[in-house]
Design a protein that fits this description.
Elements lengths: L6 E5 L4 H12 L3 E6 L2 H11 L3 E5 L5 H15 L4 E4 L14 H29 L2 E6 L12 H20 L5 E8 L8 H4 L4 H6 L10 H12 L10 E4 L16
Parallel strand pairs: 1-2, 1-4, 2-3, 4-5, 5-6, 6-7
Helix pairs in contact: 1-2, 1-8, 3-4, 4-5
The structure holds nicotinamide-adenine-dinucleotide.
Length: 255
């Protein structure tokens, strides 16, 4: 019960990782506001979770919508203790095929969206006297990945945003950390994970020898949103089965 009496706001709560985080928040005794541009997706997850969850429409590129949703969530649950900045989109194509519009859209949703959601929710955390912000980045934001120029730039930006916010909100007792998952078998990737060729090939890239699951990410998000992480701020947490650092299993190298 790491989140007993805590209230978390999860952006993109109707999607794969966001929904897993919402479920984990409730399993750990907390209550959760699911914010999503796709209200019906968020409502479906909220209905599954019952009275400890509520769905609100909010596009993370719109500060006024985020502020209205944060105010409504705070009123519904009596305050906010944590923000999980999770909403995101991805465009996979070569650099030369990326249009200016692709670049601006990815930066707008994935990076500016986290800045705006933090702006909307931080006053509620500060009013509580303490709080947590968990920014979902990616291992693409640490080591990069091909064919995702805008996505990689946005995710590196999230790591920088995380460090900047950790400093700027430290006097308000708000801890800010980044979560960096590898490829997770969320609905975004399930066709790849289940592909007979790509699925097993990519699973070989990590020490765990399997694809990550949304629940793997959710467990670390819950830790970072809880009082157990009071001395953790300005950090990046990889949830990647050891992939990002290119670790090799013992016995698989000759020397
Ligand atoms: N799935 C992976 O392999 C993986 C790996 C690393 C990082 N991530 C990151 O995790 C986060 C969640 O990914 P996912 O796999 O669950 O994706 P997903 O597509 O399953 O879910 C994303 C959710 O965000 C919502 N959303 C999209 N644009 C929005 C906007 N403008 N405003 C509000 N909500 C919006 C969608 O409606 C959806 O419910 C993203 O930030 C993604 O970059 C995912």
């Amino acid at each position: 019960m790491r989140l007993e009496n805590k209230v978390a706001v999860v952006t993109g709560g109707g999607g794969g990782i966001g929904a897993a985080v919402a479920r984990a928040v409730v399993e750990e005794g907390g209550r959760v506001a699911l914010l999503d541009v796709d209200l019906s997706a968020a409502e479906e997850i909220a209905a599954e979770l019952g009275g400890d969850a509520a769905a609100f429409e909010a596009d993370v590129t719109k500060l006024d919508r985020l502020e209205a949703a944060a105010a409504a969530a705070s009123e519904r649950f009596g305050g906010i203790d944590a923000l999980v900045n999770n909403a995101g989109i991805r465009i996979v194509k070569s650099f030369l095929d990326h249009t200016e519009e692709d670049w601006r859209r990815i930066l707008d949703v994935n990076l500016t969206g986290q800045f705006l959601a933090a702006k909307a929710v931080a006053p509620h955390l500060i009013a509580r006297g303490k709080g947590k912000i968990v920014n979902v980045a990616s291992i693409a934001g640490i080591g990069g990945r091909p064919n995702r120029v805008a996505y990689v730039a946005a995710k590196f930006g999230i790591v920088g945003l995380t460090r900047a916010l950790a400093m700027d909100l430290s006097a308000d007792n708000v801890c800010v950390n980044a979560l960096c998952p590898s490829m997770i078998a969320s609905p975004l990737n399930i066709s790849l994970a289940e592909d007979g060729d790509i699925g097993p090939r990519w699973a070989k890239d990590n020490l765990a020898r399997r694809w990550g699951r949304p629940e793997d990410v959710a467990k670390v998000a819950v830790f970072l949103a809880s009082d157990d992480a009071d001395y953790v701020t300005g950090s990046e947490y990889r949830v990647d089965g050891g992939e990002a650092t290119g670790l090799v299993r013992a016995g698989e190298m000759e020397l």
